[in-house]
Every structure is written in C-alpha cells, then in structure tokens.
Design brief:
Blueprint: H1 3-16, H2 22-25, E1 40-48, H3 53-69, E2 72-81, H4 93-106, E3 110-113, H5 119-129, E4 133-134, H6 136-147, H7 151-165, H8 191-230, E5 235-240, H9 246-256, H10 260-263, E6 282-286, E7 294-298, H11 308-313, H12 319-322, E8 326-332, H13 338-351, E9 359-364, E10 383-385, H14 394-405, E11 410-416, H15 421-430, E12 432-438, E13 443-449, H16 451-461
Parallel strand pairs: 1-2, 1-3, 3-4, 5-7, 5-8, 8-9, 9-10
Antiparallel strand pairs: 6-7, 11-13, 12-13
Helix pairs in contact: 3-6, 6-7, 7-8
The chain binds guanosine-5'-triphosphate and magnesium ion.
Magnesium ion binds at residues 246-247, 271, 277-278.
C-alpha cells in the first residue's frame, strides 16, 4: 500500500464520520478504492523501554480503550523491549519484519503504536510493513474528529490535524521519489518533492484560514462570557482525566438543582464509559437550596501525553477553565492510577495558566473503592470523596464549594427603583437578604452577596453599593 492510499484512507474515514475536511478533499482525486468501516482490524504495537511492568500494562490497557473509542478492532498486540526506541524504525527492523508477518496473517489494515513516533520512524516502519502506521497522537486526533460536533470543535480538530500532518508530508510522496528532471534548480526537483512543497503551502494556507475563523468564534465566545459574568453568577469548571465522571457529576448537580423541574432531562449532558465522551463545552446554571447559585461548565477530559497541538487548538474551548472562579478536579478514586491522573491534570492546567484558581479535589466513584479504603470526608478539607452515581458526599462537596464561593462576600446596602424587579430577583437568588423595606423612592435592601453579584449590582446602579 502506498502512502497516497494512506491519505485517501484518512479522507474516507473522515467523510464516513461526517467530518468534512475541505483541505483533504484535494486528495480525493488520488487513486485507490480502499474504504474504512467501523471495527477496522488493527494490530497494537507496544514498545517497552524503561518503564515498570505495571506501568507498561496500564499504558497498553489505555491504548486498547482508545482503540475502542475509535471503533477499531484489535487483532493482537505485538510487544518489544529495547533499552531505547530504535532511531530508524522505532521497534527495530527485525521486529518490523515480524510485525509484517502478523499483519498478513491477521488481515489487519494498519497498526497503532503505543507512543508517538518521529516522522522518520513512521516513514521507515511504514515502508517495511506496507500498511499505514498510527501513533498515539494520530489515534487521539482521530477520536476527536469523530466526536467533534460543533463548528468550533471541528475547526479546532482540523487545525491540530493539519499541524500534525505538516512535518509528515515527506513520507507521503516517497513512491514518486525524485522522478522528473530537466534544467534549472527548481525543475531538477522530483515530482515527489514538488508535490511536498505544494502540499506544505496549501496546508499552511489552510491553517491560517482556520486560525482566522477560530479567532472570530472566540470573539463571540468572549462576548458571551462577559455577558454571563455581568449576570453576577460565579463560574465553576469541572476538569480532570477522561472518564473520571465529570459529566455524571454535572448531571447529578442538575438533578439536585431547583431548576431541575423547569429544565428537565434535555439539559443533561452525555455521560458514558468511554474515553473522550465529552468534547464540546456545556454550561448550566446550578441553583441548589442553601448554596450560592453558580454556572457549571463541563468540558473535554485530559489524558497522558495529550498532543500539544490539540491543547493549543482547544485553548478557546478550555477558556471556560481559565476564567473559572473555582475548579473541581474530578478523579476516579477507584482507579489505582488516580494520583497520576491528578498530576497530569495539574500539568495541563499549568499549560493553560489555570493552576492558581481555587480548587477542590473531588475523589469520585467512592462507591467502587475497595472495602477498607478511606472515603470519609473531613469538614473544611479541599479533598472530598463523592459518588456521582449514588450521591454519597454531595452535601460535603456543596458545603466546601459554597465556602469558597462565599469567601469574597460583601454586604450591600442599596435603594432599588421599583422598575428594577430583575435586579431584586437576582439579589434574592444569589444573596442573603438581611432587610428589605419598601420606601417611596424604591426598595431599600441590605444583603450579603458574593463578590461577582455585588459587582453586578454596582454596575447596574452605577456606583458603590457597600453598606
Ligand atoms: N460506579 C460509579 N460509576 C460512575 C460514577 N461516576 C461516573 N461513573 C461512570 O463512569 C463513566 C464515565 O463517566 P462520565 O461522566 O462520562 O466521565 P467524564 O469524566 O465526563 O468522561 P469524558 O467525557 O470522557 O472525559 C460512566 O460509565 C459513568 O456512569 C460513580 O460515582 N460511581
Ligand atoms: Mg464527559
């Protein structure tokens, strides 16, 4: 199979998932009739260098889950141990020949590697095994392209995908080699090399277009966010490793919310035992008795070695995290690797300049923790055990959250004109009323309000409201 087939394969797979990628259509005019269906057979290739056995096994299991999330069917796992990755073929040329044999016997259509390969390693391995090679980044990009629903998410994925392709173009036209010739330095280039140059220019051009379009969407998003914060509600963001239970926690809070009967199930977000179930950000208002109301956002989960270009491309989606007043770092506390997940989440937050935001560490899935393992909550601690499934620990979580939301509380003493019914409602919903008197010029209210709401009241009444 030629590399051109590999590109065509990509296009067909994207089109079959309704993710139209205008740039890649350029390649449709190329040859071959390969088609990709769901449950495409693949072989997983796992290279172990210096990691402990348990770590290696965990990484293999995670790769299997990623393949499931991408609808690929594993036909087998080929492992190799080397002191360090082979510079040329990643697994060594002998192992590559063995892999070729397994591909022929199993009918696998391509291979998926445990880690990321350099463009040269990918090109050389591909040449030996004669089927496409996907590395970890490619697999994650593919899952994201399947899940992206909103226009913004699709553009973000396409940007990350093209950035990933750019340094790998060298391998795509290798079958055309240095054909061509003639006089002059440009004319001396082979067809393959000219094609690479052309592709590189087209891809760079498309990336520029995508970035412009994303910048416009981001502007709209910023205006929306500004509008929301002017409403005076604090924002709380759910973050954490993929599959930790972020969306389930959002749904549990929606169930507990006073708005549950008005909004019904259509406000619920998608939750599933699958990596990267959520890709697009959802924001919901949560109003629970005795807790200051807040806006809650649920967004894409993190994973180890999340492709850097993907994080960059998703910066505007993740802006809800950057501008949040409080972060809930959700972990699957029944997973023996949850401390590692916590570290990866914190590293990603550092990349997003969001590590300084006040946070609560939410140890979810307490119902699945082995008997004897701690699930007890200590009042005042920023570590809270909960179960989004059974509701265990939800009151502790809400008390801790309300404490943080209330840390900037201010007493306001204002005269609201009789035409300001909306503002009075907001104070009733978000603050604690101390006194309320109906006077000739308006309603004289004294109330304790969260900092954001107090700022909102100031902006509405055009001055300081502090009593
Ligand atoms: N037993 C148990 N299962 C839970 C709990 N919370 C969530 N789950 C399950 O864990 C799986 C993943 O839950 P999600 O809420 O989709 O996880 P997420 O963090 O939003 O995942 P991504 O969107 O992929 O990042 C689902 O099958 C949930 O039913 C819990 O407290 N206990
Ligand atoms: Mg989710």
């Amino acid at each position: 199979m030629y590399i051109t087939d590999f590109i065509y394969y990509t296009i067909k797979s994207r089109i079959s998932h309704n993710n139209y990628c205008p740039f890649l259509c350029y390649y449709i005019r190329m040859n071959t009739d390969i088609s990709v269906e769901d449950q495409t057979p693949v072989i997983l290739v796992c290279l172990r260098t210096d990691e402990a056995e348990e770590e290696f096994e965990y990484a293999i299991n995670e790769l299997k889950s990623l393949c499931e999330a991408c609808d690929l069917e594993s036909k087998g796992i080929l492992t190799q141990a080397l002191p360090h990755p082979d510079n040329s073929t990643w697994i060594g040329s002998g192992k590559a020949q063995e892999l070729k044999y397994h591909i022929e016997v199993s009918g696998a259509e391509f291979v998926v590697c445990l880690k990321n390969l350099s463009p040269a390693q990918m090109k050389n391995l591909q040449k030996i095994i004669e089927v496409p090679v996907w590395d970890r980044t490619r697999l994650i990009l593919e899952i994201f392209s399947k899940r992206a629903r909103t226009r913004e998410a699709r553009l973000q994925v396409e940007t990350a995908y093209l950035q990933y392709m750019l340094p790998r173009l060298g391998g795509m036209w290798q079958h055309l080699g240095r054909q061509g010739g003639g006089g002059g330095s440009r004319a001396n280039k082979g067809i393959g090399e000219k094609q690479i140059e052309l592709d590189r220019r087209q891809i760079s051009h498309r990336i520029t277009e995508l970035k412009k379009e994303l910048a416009k969407i981001e502007q709209v998003r910023n205006v929306q966010r500004g509008g929301r914060s002017r409403d005076g509600y604090p924002s709380v963001a759910l973050v954490g490793y993929t599959n930790a239970g972020k969306s389930s926690l959002m749904n549990r809070l929606l169930d507990m919310s006073d708005t549950a009967s008005e909004t019904g199930d259509e406000k619920k977000v998608f939750e599933k035992d699958m990596l990267f179930a959520t890709l697009d950000t959802s924001i919901r208002k949560i109003a629970i008795r005795n807790v200051r109301p807040f806006l809650l956002s649920d967004t894409v989960g993190f994973i180890e070695n999340i492709p850097h270009d993907l994080i960059k491309a998703f910066r505007s989606t993740l802006a809800e995290v950057r501008y949040a007043d409080v972060l809930l770092i959700v972990m699957d506390s029944s997973d023996p690797h949850h401390q590692m997940h916590k570290k990866i989440t914190e590293d990603t937050l550092r990349d997003l300049n969001a590590l300084d935001i006040p946070k609560i560490y939410v140890y979810n899935k307490a119902d699945l923790r082995a008997t004897g393992q701690n699930t007890k909550n200590v009042p005042g601690s920023d570590h809270v055990y909960i179960s989004a499934l059974t509701g265990y620990g939800m009151d502790d979580l809400l008390a801790t959250l309300d404490n943080i939301l209330g840390s900037g509380d201010r007493t306001v003493d204002v005269l609201i004109p009789y035409s300001g019914g909306d503002l009075l409602n907001r104070i009733h919903n978000g603050g604690r009323i101390i006194s309320e008197e109906y006077e000739e010029a308006g309603i004289h209210v004294t109330a304790v309000c969260p900092a954001l709401l107090a700022g909102y009241i100031d902006s509405c009444l055009g001055g300081s409201s502090t009593g």
